Amino acid sequence: MGDWWQRNIIEPGKLPLLLALTAFVVTFLVTRVITRMIRAGKGPFRNIETGAVHIHHVVPGVVLTVIGGFCAVAGGQHGFGAAVSAVVFGMGAGLVMDEFALIVHLDDVYWTEAGRKSVEVVVLTAALAGLFLLGFAPFGVNDLSDDDLQDRGSVISTVLVNFLFALIALAKGKARVAIFGMIVPFIALFGAIRLARPTSPWAKRFYRRRPRARAKAQLRAFHHDRRWAGPSRRLQDWIGGAPDVDRALERR
Asked: Membrane-crossing residues (predicted)?
């Protein structure tokens, strides 16, 4: 175990990344527990307010992210300072990403349906950081020998082809597949060859005069959403808490 830790974490300089990822996940989970307790009126925690202004936790998150980021740049990848900077950065990023939906909408949508976007982005960020920690490189170029690295044409072509697949998947309305596909090549290829989402730019451009393809894309999207929407919502509710019921819908 000690040899594995030294060879895979310490020597490649991945300890700060591991600490940042751990701090990121722990901070998000602790923050969600506290906010759910505040929402339920339990425990000693309360919202922080200055006069009529509610101080969202994205504010200290931004401060911690800036401090941790600049200290990490100045401190390098090794040493106690790098470890502390990574933890501070991870904590700040966890607080910021927990209110990602607020930043997007510029409104307090934390406990609304739109607030689910924060949970999705946090899970996606943690997964990508985990892949980097495991050694995956962007665009899928990893585990190359010295001879392979010297053949720059091969590396560049691999990057460009995989990036093209990721762009096609993104144009087909598959953002998550495109993001992960930039790291794992076959995921991007899988997203590029499958039918586009019916509301995607690809479908609007290429399925406009192909009613059969358009109908097939709509049917496939319907079955996919029906199959995965329920489990996805339950997982998000378990992680971040269920959103408030829309009062307008409640009265119907």
From this structure: 15-34, 55-76, 82-106, 118-141, 153-170, 177-196
Say how far apart CA 11 and CA 93 lie, in whole Å.
25
Contact 142, 12 (CB under 8 A): no
pTM of the predicted structure, to 2 decimals: 0.79
The residue count of the chain comes to 252
List phi, psi (to 5°) of 210.
Answer: -125, 80
How does DSSP assign 173-191, residue by residue?
A: T-HHHHHHHTTSHHHHHHH
Q: Rounded to whole angstroms, how far apart are CA atoms 2 and 128?
A: 26
Q: What contacts 21, CB < 8 A, 6 or more positions away?
A: 90, 126, 129, 130, 133
Residue among 116, 70, 123, 62 nearest 93 (CA)? 62
On the CB side of 27, CA atoms within 13 Å amount to 28
What pLDDT, in 10s, does the model give residues 135-165?
777 766 666 566 665 666 676 777 788 889 8
- For residue 94 the two structure tokens come to 């966890």
Amino acid at 115: G
Between the alpha carbon of residue 246 and those of residues 73, 120, 231, 251, the distances in Å are 45, 20, 21, 9
